[in-house]
Amino acid sequence: MRIAFGIFRLAPTGGLERNAMTLAEMLTARGHRVALHATRGLELAPAGVDRVAIAPAGWSNHGRQAAFSTSYAAASAAGFDLVVGFQKLAGLDLLYCADWCFVDRPRPAWQRLLPRYRVMTRLERACFGAGSRTRILGLARPQLDAYLRAYATPQDRLALLPPTVEPGRRPAAPRTGAARTALRRKHGLDSTAVLWLWIGLQPRVKGLDRVVAALGRHPEARLLVCGPASGNRQLEALLAAARRAGVADRIRLFGMVSDGQLLGELFAAADLLVHPARLDVTGTVILEAIVNGLPVITTANCGYAAHVLAADAGVVLPAEPAPERLDQALIGAGVEQRARWSANAFAYGRRPDLFSGLSRAADLIEAAARRDEAPWAALASADKPA
After folding, report:
1. CB under 8 Å to 243, separation ≥6 — which residues?
2. CB 41 within 8 A of CB 72
3. Contact (Cβ atoms closer than 8 angstroms) between residue 210 and residue 323
4. Residues near 70 by Cβ (< 8 Å), separated by ≥ 6?
5. Of 277, 276, 304, 278, which Cα lies nearest the Cα of 291?
6. Closest among 150, 385, 164, 177 to 283, alpha carbons compared
7. Domains of the chain
8. Is residue 139 within 8 Å of residue 100, measured between CB atoms?
9. Can you spell out the DSSP letters for 264-283?
10. pTM of the entire structure?
11. CA-based R_g, the chain, Å
């Protein structure tokens, strides 16, 4: 079968982009012909995948998204058994949805009058509205529940995927004291301090400011930061605040970590993943920490926070935790508690379903392309959102 994939751009660092490329590769290996449409980054596409460049247009982010939607709809209008999108676009047969519901987010009333709001809601409605036939692959239960609140999308168009952790993220053996000490020496990290790890691309959305503020109240801690590149304005502002607070010398920046081995070593060397995000559709880093045996302190508005509770591998704070609540969680994460959480996390990380999301997505895409309702119903029914 011929399957069209549409994603605005490809980049080596984005989780959504990696998932799109992996799915294109998986479906190609199954004998299908996948045409990947994007405005840039097509040189990253897997071998055997057709590459279709779409010229970017528009002067704003929402304008470019609307223009891409129109161009992709025209490019995929004929010759395909299924049209798949990785952003909300018009005319899709299936959406791999990695975003939170746009209209479900609280915002001032005046923002609803802006062109951006009108464009984004129009594209969202094209996928989730009552008149749409687009099937939806969602990544987390809270995410799909938000769309149900906003659009009452028929549940027979929704499927909740299992997590999409890459199998290579799980080490063969749990962390040991000696190995952790050796890794700390290798990377020049304090062998006696409590090491907090923070990973993300959006410092404020993913709560880095909360972690930096907490650092001043916990002199025993050191903070390892992965993700934001040098020059990121939010990161620079946080570093300036850290210098004023006298804690900048306890922060170590690793930048964008694309090396899987280095990331695994940081998971092994750290004592806690501290991820007090304001919003995270999934929080894949939470599960990556768990499968590595690293305890987690996170917030309830992360899609994968439920796995922390299911594994008994850390603390899930309220969506908007007071600084005192974060401090209590950090103080409660003593040596013995961390060891117990770590063992629980590594045991939980053996579950095969934590790594099966992309395989399940490929099955559902295949079923939709065949217009075969029975396989879709069988695969989707067990994972319906509440």
Report:
1. none
2. no
3. yes
4. 90
5. 304
6. 164
7. 2-162+356-381 (3.40.50.2000), 167-351 (3.40.50.2000)
8. no
9. HHHHHH-SEEEE--S-BSS-
10. 0.91
11. 22
For strands 33-38 and 50-53, give the pairing: parallel
Q: For residue 202, what is the DSSP state?
A: -
pLDDT in tens, 337-358: 999 999 999 999 999 999 999 9
The H or E element that residue 126 is part of is helix 115-128
Place of tokens 């040991």: 176
Judged by average pLDDT, the poorest of 145-149, 212-216, 257-261 is 257-261
Nearest to 5 by CA among 72, 88, 91, 63: 72
Q: What are 355-380's pLDDT values in tens digits?
A: 999 999 999 999 999 987 776 676 54
Planar angle of CA 220, 224, 227, nearest 5 degrees: 155
The per-residue pLDDT for 386 is: 40
Amino acid at 193: A
Of 32, 15, 97, residue with least CA distance to 367: 32
CA dihedral 76, 82, 83, 86 (to 10 degrees): -150
Q: How many CA atoms lie within 13 A of 360 on its CB side?
A: 24
